[in-house]
Structure formats: C-alpha cells, structure tokens
Amino acid sequence: MASTYTPIATYTAASDQSSITFSSLGSYTDIRIVANMQDTNLYGLLRFNSDSGSNYSRTWMYGNGSSAQSNRNSNQTSAYWGATSSGSEFLVNLMDIMNYSNSTTYKTMLVRQNQASAEVDAFVYLWRSTSAITSISFVSATGTATIKAGSTITLYGIKAA
Question: What's the number of domains the chain is made of?
C-alpha cells in the first residue's frame, strides 16, 4: 500500500455474518476499501448511511477471457460487492470512494473485483445524495448470515496532497 494510505479499520468475520458496518471513517479526502470476501448468496449489498432507497446507479463491464459485456442500471437500492458465479470462493474487491465527506456533491465509487475462476469486473457507482458518507455497510442480500467467516475488509483513508 502507498505510504499516503492510512489504515482506518480492519474487520475479519469470526463467524458467518448478515452485515458488517463501519461508522468511524475519520477525516480524509477519499477512502479505499480492500475486501477479500465470500457470500454464499453470490453477491452482497453495499450501502452508505443505511440508505436503501433507489439512489444508486451503476455502470459495469466484465471479461472472462473469451467474452466481455457491459451494462448500466439506474435507481438501484444499493451498490454490490462480490458478484460471483458460484458463491463458493473468496473475491478480492478494491473500492475507491472519492470525496466521501463532501456535503455538496453526489458520491462516486470505483470498484474492481477479481474472481480467479471466472472473470474480472469493473464498476462505477454513483450515490445520488449530497450527504457526507458517515457509515459503510456490507449487507447480505437475503438478510441472513451469508457473509462467510474469514471474510476480511480493510478501510484506508487518503488525504489530499
């Protein structure tokens, strides 16, 4: 990790979880999240400030070595993490949230997911809220404990130069 990254928090699930929330984000310009996670539900939800309204949009693309695809979705109730074809492997998710503490602009998040057995994904999310992000929640899509034990999330703060 670059020396400009300051560790904010690390969480490792000791047992299966239905949600993991970070609410002490510090005073930084941007946040980088490095997550190595598994969800038996094939994917999980990511929400800012517990917002489950239709305030998220995404543009995404993926490739699997023989084909590629892209799409756009508006008015989603969350961002996603860990889109996996099997639900049986841990995925590396790199998430960058720009200008998260600003209270005058919408928030942008860039996500890269690597699934060794299947594909590489890239997402751009827009959270259509001018509220500063004060909490980040990783949530099971079913509400049951599908985030597997051993899943690890680390948040890093990045200050503007």
Answer: 1
